[in-house]
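Possible regression after last week's pipeline update?

I re-ran a chain I had predicted before the update to compare outputs. Posting the input and the new output here so someone can diff against the archived version. Not blocking, just want to make sure nothing changed silently.
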Amino acid sequence: MRNPAPLVLSLILAAVAAFFMIKKPAPPAPAAPPAQTTAATDSAHKPEAVPAKGGTIPVAAPAAAKSDTPAPVTDGPKTWPQDQSDIAADPKAVFGKLENGMRYLIYPNAEPPARVSLRMHIAAGSLMEAEDQRGIAHFLEHMVFNGTKHFTPEELIPKMQHLGIGFGAHVNAFTSFDETVYMLDLPDLSKDTMDLGFTVMRDFGDGAKLDAAEIDKERGVILSEKTSRDTVQFRLMEQQFSELLPGSLVSRRFPIGLEDVIEKAPREKFVDLYSRFYVPERMTFIVVGDVKPDEIEARIKEAFGDLKNPENPGKNPDLGEIKKVEGVRAAVFSDKEVTSTDLSLVSVRPFSRVPDSSTRRLSMLPLSLAHAAIARRFERIAKQDGSAIANGSATRDELFNYAELGSFDVTVTDDRWQEALPILEQEYRRALEFGFTDAEIAEAKANVLNAYQQAVKTAPSRKSESLATGLAKSINDGTVFSTPETDLEIIQKGLDTATAETCHAAFREFWADQGLHLVLTTKVEPEKARETLLSIYEESRTKKVEAPEQKSAAAFAYTDFGAPATVKSEKKVDGLEFSQIVLSNGVRLNLKKTDFEKGTIRLTTRIGAGKLTQPKDMPGLDFFATAVFDGGGLGKHSVDDLQQILAGRNVGTAFAIADDAFTLGGKTTPEDLELQLQLMCASLTDPGYREEALAQFKKAIPMIMQQLRHTPAGPQAAMESWLHGDDSRWGVPTEAKLAAFTIDDARKWLTPALTKDYLELSIVGDFDESTLMPLVLKTFGALPARADKKPDLSKLRKVTIPSAAIEKTFAYDSKIPQGTALVIWKTEGLRGNTKLFRRLNLLGDILSDRLRDEIREKLGASYSPNAGPGGSDGLDGFGYLMAECVGKAADTKKLADTATEIANLLARNGTTDDELDRARKPLQSQMQKAKRDNSFWLGTVLAQSQEDPARLELIKGRDADYASITADELHDVAIKYLGQKHAMKVLIHPEGTAQAAEEPKDQDEGQGQGHRPGKG
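New output (post-update):
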């Protein structure tokens, strides 16, 4: 369970981030194999897949080919893409196909060592459902965990936990429109673990019992998941697809399905879909890990060779005709809860896939570069004084080998859509008429090339989980699993020939002479909105547009920071293998060289005292200061300048404000390390604080307030303030307060800390220390002298967390009948209590398992109930254990009472050795995995190791400490902190939607006291 503070800030800052470009953007890319994750794909309008025990995976995007008639999705994979392509597959991969038609792919990969990731891809999803089966494809994904040939419903999850295999919502499977994917990441290669993995995957294929009683028990779980996924955005998306694809099956087959079907569908409907579509010819089994391919291949044949295809397997449906639009057709979607007003020009046309090839990949490159240039134009326009837009983009995408979409979009400032529409139309027409400048295309090309080059350099350290998931994503797309070297070779040829002229031609080919949907999404539909949209659009078309202005990039201006420092002291930290260095100017430096990420170096600085020093009369100053610091660029370079200057370079900064430190971090490569260090030092010594950043922030304020008014973010922010004793530093700012902030407010607060306060720089990754040290000495070492320690902050670290049993309600304005029940038990603070929080981690996992069993599985009242500790390492005494259940708004009190009662029983009777083992094994597996994760070393170990040296001994003893924890110890912790008399119940729901629930039984029992039970 995370501390809610960063969660709430992230929700609010998400609105702000929409208005600011980071200093190093993700580059555009053509349709590269998703498994390589070489660069950002040129796609945005992707319907939401609905995960059950898995996670949402968007529809991937192979290269498109135009066709007059739509082609339905294929009836499952028959051959491998490389069989029809000039692109060679990665030679390390073993591709095979069983006699029954099931395909398999084995890829030996030793990162992380002694682990393996399994993926079973079924080329079937919600599009295969009949009208009276809507939602059953997703429901089936749940049911295979609820009783199979080899596992009863009660057996599978405990067996996985005992072996250290993670289980939970968004972890083990997902269902989309045209695919279902099952995922197991095995923590070791032992016989028991491998046997379980293969047996489970085989059972998913044809061994599901689909017991009627189990189906009935799971109905509530599915309905609770449907409730948890019900959002205004999802509802609008359904309406938009009905408008864009009228008559198409896609708009009537969203994976979550219909409530009536979920509640009433008989067993035979499940059996029908399962038996017709879970067939070998639709299956692809993927194994990636530290394995010997020949051994795995033999095992696959043994495990899956006798799978049978039915006599009449299910066929893929005709998805319907795509109706072309003549001219411009206006559409309006409105809801008072939408976060922002948006305008789009959308083209929809039939799509037919052709085999992946070098030609097809390169054919999409010029369009991708053109769309990147459009996005950059919108960025510049958004930053103009008084601009009616906040940002914009241009994309192409395709759905299920059926429809190809193009979208030209802007987010509107302050609902000024009448002013924003001419901007949208004229930029669209400017690109059609005049194309792009050489500088625009050069910038986009540099970013693409760099992305592919970095994919080559980092390939040796690709993680098996990511590779396996990427491969599963690519199955329905038909992309060849080629090497990063091959991908680079192909794209290099395209970049060598791509020019402003070829990009203009590609843009015209894609966009010219297309019927367009003109779409307005806003809070309230204006009177005669469609007529007004078309009128403004037609009037704008009469205005002359000029060719885009050429703009050349300047040189980076920050290369000299003064005389280099010297090393004052250095020591090695035994057992953790890193160096602690103090420079002559007082800068602290921590260095750890690793090979966990080839060609990658991660950096972070902790500076000063962060939010502790925030003026108490300025709630919200922290995220205002973050926004204008990042959005202001540097003194000599605006953010826009930096986009050009840094194109093709692996540098960037991320500024954040923690409870007790300001942080500035980044990620780079050995080749760009010096530039990265220069950029970070320039950010500290000469931040831009431009007025354009203030203007952009003010544009974001309505979006922020919409989130606070109409989503759980508002109540969560209010709860955060309450948990901090209503300390204004964690308070919820008013709209007037946000609008009143000035650049000087941020500068006055940040400047003293960033220029003088204690600074600890940590660097982890693939570097050579003899090369790195001179670069650090002439950048961070050349900064003015820093304080040698932090001042006494004890008074600032104090907040008053509520402790008495209490029930509080936080409401917000929404039609979505969704509620959240939180039960919070105050504990000692995280600061200085690491060993206690380890025990709370395990206790939280045990409580989570009990919540899952009772609230999810038995009651079907919440999709993903969970529990865990939270708190702040920067505050004294701020800690808690929290249980969270999301369900129907009317059930929030019942959920809170039930969670409290479950915790009461845990306090009264304690836990068992079996429960402890099932909680500890997956956690130990994750800890072992973290030891090969640079982010763990950077954030947990190095970042404040000189500020707080005591944490190092705690980290050294972490594994042994976790292994030593007993059930008796956890009972002692539960007795001390849990129980009814300690429970703070927080109910979050829309106004007027919650109802009181009956008090659970035995409320006079389980007050955090009791005898110790016998061990299980």
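Follow-up from reviewer: compared with the archived run. Residues 867 and 883 are 4 Å apart (CA to CA). Marking as no regression found.
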